[in-house]
Amino acid sequence: MSRVIVFDRPGGPEVLRTAEVPEPEPGPGEVRVRVRAAGVQPFDIAVVEGWLPAGAEAAYPRTPGNEFAGVIDRVGEGVGDFAAGDEVLGFNLLNSYREHLVVPSSQVTPKPPEMPWEVAGGFTAPAQTAYNALEDLRVGEGDTFLVHGAAGAVGTVAVQLARLWGATVIGAAREEQHDYVRSLGASPVAYGAGFTGRVRALAPEGEVHAALDGVGGAALDATLDLVKDRSRIITLYDHDRAASLGVGLSPAKRTAARLAEMARLYADGEIVWHVRETFPLERAADAHRSYKAGGIRGKIVLTVD
């Protein structure tokens, strides 16, 4: 039998429970991963509260989580790139909060030996979200780039990646996170009255060319005043307002090749990564409570013994 976190109805962290199910078997083109770590993110919170991503099965019970790391222990017919014993990190739509996970082999990539399990388990979603957003925003040399929620998981990667691509980065975050944001290579700026003026004062020639919004609400409203070209604004939060405001949403184009590229950047020391807190799988509800309490720097990760 295999442990899995499930919920039978929408709700808060209290609806999450541990269950035991038969160990899944990989089919053709699939691998089975003995999960060692799985990340916790806003996507998961929304799923537990009742949101269903496109392509997901509507039946209950459901299992949250769409990023993981672990060791392949079985491979299906036709899989030639991986073998039992390979350490990998990867992605799926749902179902990562579990002990054994079956996914297509195209959704995993080798885990660098330099990457600890707790880092690997929570790396996939923010790394690819940041990369895909910056690519769509055309962030590069000469740009001034504003990141809202710069101390969070996506923000941590977005700041560093934009710097690597030649941009000047302004990172908006709570004041207690400013030293951390500065350590990533961004000029920190506090929220509150006078926000847009503070941003313009930090921006060369007072101009912001692109922005990634991980906060929504007033932060997104302020961004509309700062960035002239709304096609160069992406919100990760205000999905319902994006179309009417003319701003973009996070592109859904995760690939193993892109994940491998980001993992190499970590292994080479080009990107640093902060895990704020870890919880054992059985305490997934506590992990969600911690996330919802706010003030997140870096990532919360579930570990599987």
Description:
The structure is a single chain. The chain has 305 residues and is of the alpha/beta class. The protein has two domains: 2-123 and 274-303, Quinone Oxidoreductase, Chain A, domain 1 (Alpha-Beta Complex), CATH 3.90.180.10; 126-249, NAD(P)-binding Rossmann-like Domain (Rossmann fold, 3-Layer(aba) Sandwich). Helix content is 30%, strand content 25%. The protein is built from ten helices and 15 strands. The chain has helices at 42-48, 117-121, 124-137, 153-164, 178-184, 195-202, 218-226, 239-245, 256-267, 284-292, and strands at 2-6, 17-21, 30-40, 67-75, 87-91, 100-104, 108-110, 144-148, 168-172, 187-189, 210-213, 233-235, 248-249, 275-280, 299-303. The strands form three sheets. Strands 3, 4, 5, 6, 7, 14 and 15 form a seven-stranded mixed sheet that branches. A six-stranded parallel sheet has the order 10-9-8-11-12-13, sandwiched between helices. Strand 8, helix 4 and strand 9 form a beta-alpha-beta unit. The two termini are 14 Å apart. The mean pLDDT is 95.
